[in-house]
Write a structure and sequence with these properties.
6 helices; 28% strand; nine-stranded antiparallel sheet; alpha+beta
Length: 248
């Protein structure tokens, strides 16, 4: 279903976070060697940037897909924006899982968590919170709150649902992120998206680094199931339709 994701939203992306307990090395040699290794695998990831809290390797923002890797004190993060197929969605993450432990001296004891995030951005004008409330709450018992007073307006509607699978081995969060702010133009912010996030995470201890690849595969399978069965039909499509009707 990957090819249809892009047709449903403004941007679609899959991010991975590899969390560790001890601070990662940020000296020249291990970081540059890791980035050179990633650049050999993905030649368009050729821009090295230094931010306040991270070191990053990125492809051009105009590339499709756009790929990036970032090293922070206690995590390595990778992301793919607007992947074209199933391979593009997870190949970068699998490469990172394979090579990062050796360049950054990550041991099984050091590993704290592995996390995948599936993100969908929907560009929307107007009050994001009212859009989400109308799309997801209309006709529900909570809708009565919106009718409590004639002059009542929604100023915060960012639902979050936490789920646990496999006797606690995998945790998931499904959430809506709105970005409206009070302005003299009723919250209009062209270009600012409403985001839908599906995050799957494991903190299961391991004794062999080779297990990490299978953990990523398991998270990817669980994440795609949640995206296809829960997030798209019950969250993304109703919000997208409400954005369309509110702009008429």
């Amino acid at each position: 279903m990957t090819m249809s994701y892009g047709a449903l939203c403004s941007d679609f992306y899959v991010n991975m976070k590899l969390g560790v307990r001890m601070e990662l090395p940020r000296s020249r040699e291990p970081v540059l060697e890791l980035f050179e290794r990633m650049r050999r695998e993905y030649p368009r990831m050729a821009t090295f940037k230094r931010y306040k809290d991270e070191l990053a390797l990125e492809s051009s923002p105009d590339d499709t897909p756009h790929r990036w890797m970032a090293i922070r004190a206690n995590s390595v993060r990778t992301g793919v924006v607007n992947p074209g197929d199933e391979h593009d969605m997870h190949a970068l993450h699998r490469t990172a899982i394979e090579v990062c432990p050796y360049y950054l001296s990550i041991s099984p004891l050091d590993l704290e968590s592995i996390e995948l995030l599936y993100g969908f951005d929907l560009t929307a004008r107007g009050n994001h919170d009212e859009i989400v409330a109308q799309a997801l709450l209309a006709g529900s018992p909570l809708a009565a709150l919106l009718e409590a007073a004639d002059d009542a307006r929604v100023h915060d509607c960012q639902p979050v649902l936490g789920l646990t699978f496999g006797a606690g081995r995998i945790q998931s969060t499904v959430e809506i992120k709105t970005r409206s702010r009070k302005t003299s133009h009723a919250g209009e912010r062209p270009g600012e998206p409403i985001s839908i996030y599906v995050t799957v995470r494991t903190t299961e201890p391991i004794t062999d680094l080779k297990v990490m690849a299978s953990q990523v595969d398991e998270l990817a399978e669980r994440g795609r199931t949640l995206v296809d069965s829960l997030a798209i039909p019950n969250l993304l499509v109703p919000i997208r339709d409400e954005i369309g009707s509110s702009s008429l």
